[in-house]
Each structure stands twice: as C-alpha cells, then as structure tokens.
Amino acid sequence: MNEPQHPTSTPAAVTVIGLGPMGQAMTRTLLAAGHAVTVWNRTPARAEGVVAAGAVLAATPAEALGAGGLVLLSLTDHRAMYDVLGGATGSLAGRTLANLGSDTPDRSREAARWAARHGADFLTGGVMVPAPMVGTPGAHVYYSGDPEVMDRHRAVLAEIGEPRYLGADPGLAQLMYQAQLAVFLSTLSALMHATAMLGTAGVKATEALPDLLASADQVGAILRAGESRPGAGIDAGEHPGHLSTVTMMGATADHIVETSTALGLDLALPLAVQAHYRHAIDHGHGGDNWTRIIDAVRSLRAH
Predict the structure, then answer these.
(1) 287 in Cβ contact with 245 (< 8 Å)
(2) Which backbone phi and psi does 125 adopt, to 5 degrees?
(3) N or C: which end of the chain has fewer CB atoms below 10 A?
(4) The dihedral sign for the CA sequence 41, 176, 149, 119
(5) 127 and 104 in contact (C-beta within 8 Å)?
(6) For residue 27, which phi and psi values (nearest 5 degrees)?
C-alpha cells in the first residue's frame, strides 16, 4: 500500500531590484535555495548572468513588483529607491520592501512612511558581509521594522545571511550598519596612514601591511581581555584608569601627530584622534581609562 502523499510547500517567489555585485549574489543564493526569482535592473545587461542561472528578467519595475510578495532592494540609497519605484507605486500594495542599500536612519524612517502610504510593508536591512560571502554560514544581516513583517519573511531572508533583528524602529538597522562601517572605514584609513608613515622610510606596503594587519586583528582581543561584558563600564559611566589612562594614550596621540607632521603626511586622522584625548584631559579626566574619550564624541550632542 502506498504511503499518502503530503504536499510540500513551494519556496516563496522573491523579487530582487538592483543587480550590482550584492544583488547578483542574493539572486544566485535564492535561486540555489529553490526560489523563483524575478529581477530588474536599470542596465538589463547586468541581468544576463542571473537569468542564465534561472532568474526571470522583468521589463519594468512594476512587472518586477508584481512577481513576488517580498521585494529585495539592492540599490545605492533611498533616493535610488524613489527613482526606481516612483513610477510604479500602484504596484506596491501588499508587497514587503526589504531595503538593503545604505542610507541614514532618518531617511530609512521616512522610506518606511513612504512605503506605508502606498500600502507596502517595509524592512530596513544592513548586509554585513561582502557579496562573495552572501548565503554562506558567516553571513549576517541586521534588520529593523515591524516584528510581524520580519517574522513573516524571516525564513526567506535567512537564505542570504543570518537575520539579526534589532527592533521595530526602521532606523535601527541602518544605525547599526553605519556604526559598523564607522569602525571599518576608520580602520582602513588608519591602515593607510600607518602604511604611508612607514613608506617615508622606504618600507614597501608589502612589507608593512602584514604586521599592521596583525595589529588590527589583535585589537578586539586586547579590548576584550579582562572584560566579561565589554561596554558595561561605559554604560555605568565608569572609566577606571588602572590599566591605561587618557594622559598616557593622549601622549601617544601627540607623538603620532608630531611624527606625521615631520613626515609631511595628511593630519586629518591623527588630529581627530588627538582632539578626543585633549578634550578628556581639558575636562579633568587624564587619570581615567581611554574610554573616557567617548565624552568628546558626544560633546556636540550635549550642547
């Protein structure tokens, strides 16, 4: 006797708008997971590879919107979203827009209101890996927006990376994304500044960067050493200076400025760092831990 056949669920149809490297990577990942994927891009030629892999190229944004309930936007910013979808607002009702481009938290909140006015749900996302890592075990994406909308699409979104939901405020995911990129971009500038410093002595980048990258790799471990809950002291307003002090670190910042000046290098980065330590010293916190420099970062907000 044959066993009764139970219907299996069909993977949800998904639309991807924007086929730069990230959009292409998301499309290929969703196709590999069995989803029907419809795509649209300003330059149709960019779709050739994903169409060959099984995606369907829509002729217009409106046609793309009509093909799936979940629409992933891989565009430069929210202005690009308005440019692309502004002529297709009649097709937005009942859709969920997951905007995975970069923009400010405030513009993400306004984008959510814009979507709601046209009958669409909205999630803000921040993809925290480069395109080649999309869909791999190491990929993760921050999201914020309506929790029910997030739960509805979580399984599909998990295909491109582990969803890390931050809360209902549509601006939160972009705030986290910008915070992460502040660390990343500042580190890149610091690496190039350090490479330029060593270059003045004839040290080639191929010789300098291995040691400099090793130092960058160690920063997290150094800051976590002896800290069961990193950041707890900052939250409590406590900055004990038993391991390192603002004065000590500030002296190093001064030396970096002096050295960079003598070498004829751009001073924008070292002067910014020096200013944080001088602010703490000028306000009587020279004996505190280096974390006290957060007061300088917050100083404009306090006024």
Answers:
(1) yes
(2) -135, 150
(3) N
(4) negative
(5) no
(6) -60, -50
Taking the CA atoms of 169, 162, 36 and 85 in sequence, report the sign of the dihedral they define.
positive
Question: Is 51 within 8 Å of 39 (Cβ atoms)?
Answer: yes
- In which region does residue 162 sit, left (phi positive, over 0), alpha (psi from -120 to 50) or beta (all else)? beta
* pTM more than 0.85: yes
Q: What is the pLDDT of residues 56-85, one digit of tens each?
A: 999 999 999 999 899 999 999 999 999 999
Whether residue 84 contacts residue 111, with contact meaning beta carbons closer than 8 Å, is answered with no
- Between CA 31 and CA 65 the distance in angstroms is 17
Ramachandran angles phi, psi of 277, nearest 5°: -70, -40
Q: Count the residues in the chain.
A: 303
Per-residue pLDDT tens digits for 160-212: 999 999 999 999 999 999 999 999 999 999 999 999 999 999 999 999 999 99
Residues 6+ apart with CB under 8 A from 283: 295
Contact 119, 93 (CB under 8 A): yes
Of residues 82, 153, 81, 78, the one with CA closest to residue 109: 78
Q: Strands 37-40 and 56-57, how do they pair?
A: parallel
In single-letter form, the type of residue at position 68 comes to G
Pairing of strands 140-145, 14-17: unpaired
**Phi and psi at residue 38, to the nearest 5°:** -105, 140
CA 299 to CA 303: how far, in whole Å? 7
Residue type, 128: M
Per-residue tokens: 145: 């927006």
User: Residue 231, by phi and psi: left (phi above 0), alpha (psi -120 to 50) or beta?
Assistant: left
In the sheet with 162-165, reading across from the earlier edge strand, the strands are 56-57, 37-40, 14-17, 70-73, 96-99, 121-127, 140-145, 162-165
DSSP state letter for 89? G
**Six-digit token pair at 150?**
């997030």
Q: Is 16 helix (H, G, I), strand (E, B) or coil?
A: strand
